[in-house]
Amino acid sequence: xxxxxxxxxxxxxxxxxxKEGIEEVINGKTPKAKxxxxxxxxxxxxxxxxLKYWGLGVTPVPKTNKKLIRWIxxxxxxxxxxxxxxxxxxxxxTGIGAVIRNSSGILLGGLFGSLGLAxxxxxxxxxxxxxVDLCVQKGHDKIxxxxxxxxxxxxxxxxxxxxxxxxKWIPYINESLGSFNLFELKHTYWEGNKVxxxxxxxxxxKNIGTIIFGEEDADTVVLDTIWNERPDRPCxxxx
Length: 239
Hints:
alpha/beta; Nucleotidyltransferase, domain 5; 2 domains
């Protein structure tokens, strides 16, 4: 095996040679860099050798920041309604679930039930409609409503739906929302909607009509989940 050596007259010349070598790799002038993938080795090299400092114009690959996702309590004089629909097959058994809590995370009421056969989006919007109506009946004045279906949230708040089976629920929901002094409707992720998801699946399993309950007659598993989500307790849910 032949070994090639090269001598340099100064440190500056060594640095210049290193820069030229790195430039060749980044700009695809060597066999290694001709792959369609941008190697992890190259990304590490960008960071460790500070290529931007050397003026090579290479933009570092941004790192993905993870954040904690959990149920967030409403403001002190508000209540929060979380709703969800569960389905097993997109025209199979379905269930709805909803829970309402105050700013301390205390259960004020909930419901679960079965809707028979329906699509996933029909289930979600009916879960919203039923629970909003019950909140009106209980006299809540300021309410934050959250669900993990972005399609339903956008359809109700912005553009409507292309499906008439979903569109027909919008006037009903808007009329109910008009009964509140203040309200907001927004999207959350599953990690912030666990209790409603649990209730919706209980609705499928029990396969009965809508059951409304309070803290005194709630299922133990539901109460445990609510307790673990209270704002004074640690919670995991990285997303």
